[in-house]
């Protein structure tokens, strides 16, 4: 990704497809449900961190047809080639996050701090998610010292 354009999305009336039902999918799904997205998961299995009642589950391996109606797609399988295909077979208007290949992704997720009246997001342009996580922890410590009453 050369020069990312940062935005905040309202996903409350959007259809989001997640392919794969493992650990990474579970983390992305948690964040998506927290903002009211309508989530469909395509996977032959769901791990125990995914509540099947909170999503639409297509109990199957990936096929392009399943994603036709989706506005946003998260390719979260542990099969690099399948994730590549998802990006390749998406329509030009669909945005795809390929979680196993940052060089083949339309967008990246960010580490986030949500307070009552502001939000802080952190990205390393894809270079180091763990560095984003560490910086977030430092920011949280600093914020707590500056705004002890703020809810986060
Ligand atoms: C490019 C990006 C694309 C995207 O996913 O959007 C991406 C890609 C990859 N992540 C990998 C590994 C891990 N990612 C995490 C965690 C997070 N990853 C997130 C974002 C992003 N990850 C985007 C860039 C973010 C940036 O620019 O900073 C966060 C911030 C947000 C979120 O996921 O919602 C969230 C922390 C949130 C929080 O805690 O607050 C952990 C730690 C953990 O799981 O606890 C690990 C384990 C290893 C480690 O620690 O590094 C691998 C290697 C896979 C492999 O090789 O096996 C790839 C693939 C690649 O690099 O191509
Ligand atoms: N972007 C990120 O934040 C991170 C990305 N990764 C990458 O994410 C990928 C997945 O990692 P985990 O979730 O830990 O793996 P996992 O093994 O927990 O889950 C993989 C899931 O994909 C499903 N799957 C496999 N083939 C499929 C297919 N053809 N169609 C539909 N579903 C299919 C499996 O059934 C399983 O539910 C790996 O490629 C890893 O490199 C890993 C850590 C963080």
TrEMBL record:
It catalyses: precorrin-2 + NAD(+) = sirohydrochlorin + NADH + 2 H(+). This is precorrin-2 dehydrogenase. Its EC number is 1.3.1.76. Gene3D superfamilies: NAD(P)-binding Rossmann-like Domain. InterPro entries: Met8-like, NAD(P)-bd_dom_sf, Sirohaem_synthase_N. It is an enzyme of class 1 (oxidoreductase). GO terms for biological process: siroheme biosynthetic process. Pathway: Porphyrin-containing compound metabolism; siroheme biosynthesis; sirohydrochlorin from precorrin-2: step 1/1. It holds the Pfam family NAD_binding_7. GO terms for molecular function: ferrochelatase activity; precorrin-2 dehydrogenase activity. It comes from Lentilactobacillus rapi. The keyword NAD applies. Keywords: NAD, Oxidoreductase, Porphyrin biosynthesis.
């Amino acid at each position: 990704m050369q020069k990312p354009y940062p935005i905040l999305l309202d996903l409350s009336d959007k259809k989001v497809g997640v392919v794969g039902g493992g650990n990474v999918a579970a983390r992305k799904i948690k964040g998506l449900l927290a903002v009211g997205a309508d989530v469909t998961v395509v996977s032959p299995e769901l791990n125990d961190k995914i509540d099947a009642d909170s999503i639409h589950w297509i109990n199957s391996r990936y096929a392009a047809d399943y994603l036709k109606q989706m506005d946003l797609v998260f390719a979260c399988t542990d099969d690099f080639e399948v994730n590549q295909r998802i990006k390749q077979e998406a329509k030009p208007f669909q945005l795809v996050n390929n979680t196993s290949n940052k060089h083949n992704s339309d967008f990246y997720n960010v580490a986030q701090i949500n307070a009552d009246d502001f939000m802080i997001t952190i990205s390393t342009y894809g270079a180091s998610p763990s560095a984003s996580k560490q910086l977030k922890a430092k920011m949280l410590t600093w914020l707590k010292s500056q705004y002890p009453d703020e809810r986060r």
